[in-house]
Structure to design on (244 residues):
């Protein structure tokens, strides 16, 4: 009797499990990006993956790239065949950072490249918005007077700062300004020689700073716990070159 009762419980449990699986919500799609930080002009690889066990329909007619203000700067139009996603299927869009329309668009001219800044790719799968944020900016190497072998990389996402740093490269080295910003622990692919980076939106240049935020890179590295979240303005720093 006990064995029969146990078998009944097992059957009921299996039925309940099957019911819960079939009732799982559709549209478990998400974006996977190789990087959240892209240099100006580099193709941005946007990959949408459907992780559910059921096929879903993409309800949006487009993938949209929106800026920090929510304005659409670029779109890719889905074709009818592309608007269904099989389980574990990928959809990939290689965006060249230009403000334009792709795919099924008609009579749309190619626009200028977007400026550095924060962007987001957005679409709707099975009635649910799916989005992912990323940054576009430029990488610069910092040099330090008296420390010829010291190299530190910063990534700026602010158009005015990028323009200013490029202008610095046209000046004699001794006339270039100090680079400053907020210290963050490194969780990026760049600046691998160090345990910290400067927070991209916080970076700026100046001619004069108070001494309390001055310090050699190695000093900040050795005392990183005290420097996290604080402004660093190494007086010996200057923009040395652009690029990774």
């Amino acid at each position: 009797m006990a064995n029969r009762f146990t078998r009944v419980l097992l059957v009921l449990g299996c039925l309940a499990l099957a019911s819960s699986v079939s009732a799982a919500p559709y549209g478990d799609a998400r974006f996977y990006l190789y990087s959240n930080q892209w240099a100006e002009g580099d193709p941005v690889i946007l990959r949408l993956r459907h992780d559910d066990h059921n096929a879903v329909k993409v309800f949006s007619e487009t993938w949209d790239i929106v800026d920090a203000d929510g304005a659409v700067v670029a779109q890719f139009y889905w074709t009818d065949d592309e608007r269904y996603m099989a389980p574990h299927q990928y959809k990939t869009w290689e965006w060249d950072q230009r403000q334009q329309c792709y795919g099924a668009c008609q009579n749309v001219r190619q626009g200028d490249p977007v400026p550095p800044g924060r962007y987001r790719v957005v679409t709707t799968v099975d009635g649910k918005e799916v989005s992912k944020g990323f940054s576009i900016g430029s990488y610069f190497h910092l040099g330090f007077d008296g420390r010829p072998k010291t190299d530190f990389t910063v990534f700026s996402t602010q158009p005015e700062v990028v323009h200013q740093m490029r202008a610095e490269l046209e000046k004699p080295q001794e006339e270039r300004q100090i680079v400053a910003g907020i210290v963050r622990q490194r969780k990026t692919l760049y600046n691998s020689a160090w345990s910290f980076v400067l927070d991209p939106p916080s970076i700026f240049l100046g001619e004069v700073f108070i001494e309390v935020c001055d310090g050699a890179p190695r000093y900040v590295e050795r005392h990183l716990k005290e420097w996290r979240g604080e402004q660093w303005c190494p007086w010996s720093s200057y923009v040395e070159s652009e690029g990774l």
Summary: Residues 1-27 have pLDDT under 50 and may be disordered. The longest strand covers residues 128-144. The two ends are 73 Å apart (CA to CA). Residues 143 and 150 are 7 Å apart (CA to CA).
